[in-house]
Amino acid sequence: MAHVASWKKAKVKELADVMVKNPVVAIVDIHGIPSPQMQDMRHGMRKFASVMMTRNNLLLIAIDEAAKQRPGLEKLKPLVGGQCAIVATPTNPFKLFQQMEATKSKAPAKPGDIAPEDIVVKEGETPFKPGPIVGELQKAGIPAAIEGGKIVIRKDKVLVEKGHKVSEELAKILPKLEILPMIVGMDLRGAFEDGIVYEREILNVPVGYYPTMLATAARNATALGVSIVYPTKQTIGPLLGKAYRGASAVGVKAAIPTKDTIGPLLAKARAEMLAIAARVPGLEDDRLKQQLTVAAAPAPQEKKVEKKEEEKKPEVSEEEAAAGLSALFG
To answer: Do residues 36 and 71 both lie within one domain?
Structure first.
């Protein structure tokens, strides 16, 4: 039986213990992160997560050991490869993803790096004085020239298309132009929680995306419940309001006097009374004549009106309406 170094056993046990104790375990890609930046990132995450690195074969063994106590952890094994690390935390996977994205920063490109997006140089002046650097810029494929005693870029140009390698000449000159095309930081490949592995495609959603979806679904469900008259805790209020308005409308139409319909009924009666009174000649009642004059007066118009608003009927007390009826039919 081959001898296994004690430090390897200790490392596997340490990793397995961390994965068992923390609710969320994630595999992150750390390729291309310089050592100083990696140390800064680990320090920044120390408050909410443990970041541990080791050989991939030891990490795979540790996952198998931890899976004996937390079944499902073995689903992380396909994500282990290349330069990676393990992150263990009580933070939920979605929040962890956002926190790790926030640790990323721009960095200069190295020769052979793959451009994450088109690398573009913009037309305009540069901070350089005329000199040998003009040749360096032109050698890197940048349309540079001397104009008015300054070095300028004559036009916008795509220097490297997305997915293509950065040449050595460009890698030297881009930092001088303050073009930092690379994004350096930990890329979360996948996170395990409660037996489920959430991969990057699922976690990479805008902040508030799922709460907004849930809120929209709740509003739509409530609207549907009201539409089909399905009583629930959420729909009973709108349903009662709708029923009340419907009952009031029926009461007014059928001229059934109640506490809620008497006002609209009297207002309707007054309007009809005034309409009839306007057609009857020789009325001597001064109060009725005054009401007819007020009703016939044109409403004041605004100087500029973009849209015609529905004219509101004046509110009438029960006493006034009764007095009008008495004057007409008494």
So the answer is: yes
Which domain covers residue 266, as residue numbers?
215-296+314-329
Q: Write the pLDDT tens digit of every residue in 204-236.
A: 887 778 788 999 999 999 999 999 999 999 899
> What average pLDDT score do residues 166-178 get?
86
**Separation CA 161–CA 228 (nearest Å):** 55
Whether residue 323 sits in one domain with residue 245: yes
The residue to which tokens 């100087």 are assigned: 303
Element counts in the chain: helices (H) and strands (E): 12, 12
How far apart are alpha carbons 19 and 8 in whole angstroms? 17
**What is the separation of C-alpha 25 from the centre of its chain, rounded to a whole number of angstroms?**
26
> Is 300's pLDDT higher than 80?
no
* Alpha-carbon torsion angle 116, 118, 122, 128, nearest 10: 50
Count up the domains in the chain and report the number.
3
Q: Is residue 228 part of a domain?
A: yes
Does the predicted model carry a pTM greater than 0.70?
no
